[in-house]
Amino acid sequence: MAEAAVEVVAIGDELLLGATVDANGAWLGRRLGTVGVRVARRATVGDVAADIRDAVTEALERTGAVICTGGLGPTPDDLTKPVVASIFGRELVLDDALLAALYRRFEERGIRMAANNRTQAEVPAGAIIFPNPRGTAPGLCLEDEQGRFAILLPGVPAEMRAIVDGSVIDYLVRRWPDRPGPILHRTVRTTGIPESTLAQRIDDLLPTFEPLTVAFLPGVSGVDVRLTSWGGLPEAEAAPRLDAADAALSERLGAHVYGRNEQDLVDVVSERLVAAGLTLSLAESCTGGLIAKRLTDRPGASRFLLAGIVSYSNDVKVELLGVRPETLRAHGAVSGETAREMAEGVRERTGARAGLSVTGIAGPEGGTETKPVGTVWIAAAVDGATEVRHLRLPGDRAEVRERGAQAALALLLSLIPPSEAA
Amino acid sequence: MAEAAVEVVAIGDELLLGATVDANGAWLGRRLGTVGVRVARRATVGDVAADIRDAVTEALERTGAVICTGGLGPTPDDLTKPVVASIFGRELVLDDALLAALYRRFEERGIRMAANNRTQAEVPAGAIIFPNPRGTAPGLCLEDEQGRFAILLPGVPAEMRAIVDGSVIDYLVRRWPDRPGPILHRTVRTTGIPESTLAQRIDDLLPTFEPLTVAFLPGVSGVDVRLTSWGGLPEAEAAPRLDAADAALSERLGAHVYGRNEQDLVDVVSERLVAAGLTLSLAESCTGGLIAKRLTDRPGASRFLLAGIVSYSNDVKVELLGVRPETLRAHGAVSGETAREMAEGVRERTGARAGLSVTGIAGPEGGTETKPVGTVWIAAAVDGATEVRHLRLPGDRAEVRERGAQAALALLLSLIPPSEAA
């Protein structure tokens, strides 16, 4: 077992029937990759003893290392534990400590434990027990004399992940001290710059990043630039290389970069508004509450958000936002002038320091020759100054709305004055 | 090959690395199930010729029928076609019709075709070609003299699904005329009734549904009741049995049933508002625009939606919605009285016939002993009448918001007068 590689066997009729999408396999691939352990192959079988036996035996013979997910519950169709125990020639024995913990767990919830749960405390003789902080079925690890091993994990994603993070990673890392470097990613998130322009602007930097690879991932929120170290570098070298590449990209792209990895534009806008002491109100037409919804998905939006107005009718634009009827008549609801008056109006009417507006045609109906579907105007009014932008957005209704919301948030971000703290 | 069963082999490094979650496997399980074909096993391998060869050969020997997804593109890491061709002892030959179609496709887009795309027109000699209406790589099917077969499909989900729907299902159905009945589901969607109450209320019906099984699927939108025929009945019997069980459930549960299968509550509410000729305005506090966003996700919301107001501050509740300061002082922003004045206020201020409001504590902060996190008040005002409801919702911030929005929509639905057409 020179190579740090495992096979994954996912067990469960619901996976083959398609009632459940197996997200565990992809998660394990990513998680093990971060410590330089490769997933060499995956198999998915139903709750059938012979199929589980075949898949695990093949994986042990081929790769010598297997992680099973699923089939560890207390019901008769949960076969993973007895089948794998018999492959390793072990009996199932009752573990007193596990049984006591199981009783405590049910007691704490004021539930009488059903008798079939006792099987949860049975383990193959000699197995290593990995505690499950999220549920009743512990992780188990069986090893044979040739150094081959099988790790059994529950299929419930939260439980599986907790056991991997808490125990399995340590076990694998100790087992393969000489494994290759980790697979590490860094995502630099940009908005307001098309993929082709972005690629051109950083073209000369890419060779200097090697052996890191660069992928451009365009989406409705903008283009993500993903830097990856694929295991060729040890961790102590990979991390600083990613930092350096990130810094070079950020310097080159300036305000187009709004965050990193999982960081969302609404998080960045929220933090910056609070830091600058600004209050915000929204006037949304085609985005229909999407920006308000995204800002209030996070707790703490009440620190800066005063009001959001979804102005679907022209009357509402006039009465609640103070858009002038002449403006609507002369330029239409989808125009820069209307966007400006919406942003300034919602700001004034609600006493906010910043106002943000979106008006456009999300489709699929409503487009005209001069204002096709995807025509969107956005405006941000911060204190005395208002900026207006015209957008022509590609995609279907959902995409036009997402892109419009993202562009509006990016425009607002560019107008938030730096806080004293920053 | 008496049994109508296939194995699925998914091919691609990105699947093992976890960059992509394989949703194709679950989709195939469901889709083939609808015509009585079972997925017996799945394997996932990387872009490695030996691994693809092993996995496909094993599946052919075991089950005699295999569907491969992925690895059909024009780049050098796309190995599925040559490897499977060699398993069947076939050469790759250029198909003139495919090549011509390929040139046309690029021409139509005004792009000059890169030379490596020519490989897309190469097929194993004697293969059946399944057209790809969504992309450049067609589906391919190879058969041997023992009646075993391998179907090769692209990994891009939209392309894979289009080829399965357009060609593969027909092929499998013709191949196995005596297969078992289809796996068919019917989901009856309910809201406003807890799982335990629901289960009790329909308990006596369940034995009459056999052999259909019943599953209760609680979620933030309410409890879905899923009826399934698992293949024991031929299609001609299964469909009427599902209809009858659906009708019995719907009669028993009355207004708690709002839709079927993929139907969403916002769709039902939207249709009913339009049919009844009602206009609607929203006043959202803790849901922060979520209801407005959901209603405007669909085109056509402008037929009934006048305005949505996200009133995050008390000042906005007073100034834009007309909530009385005394009400806020005496009962607080999260109260039945405030919910009532929000719904009635937004209705009057915007000239809508219906007003809907939500005010509550979504958490994680902001809860008190008398008003813990999850305390939500909703109100619906339709023409002259207003209904107010108090909710204590479980879950985290996102769940409280989703459940609150769903409950408000259900309350509104119960107050929409039947239209003349209905």
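qc> The first strand of chain A starts at residue 5 and ends at 11.
qc> done
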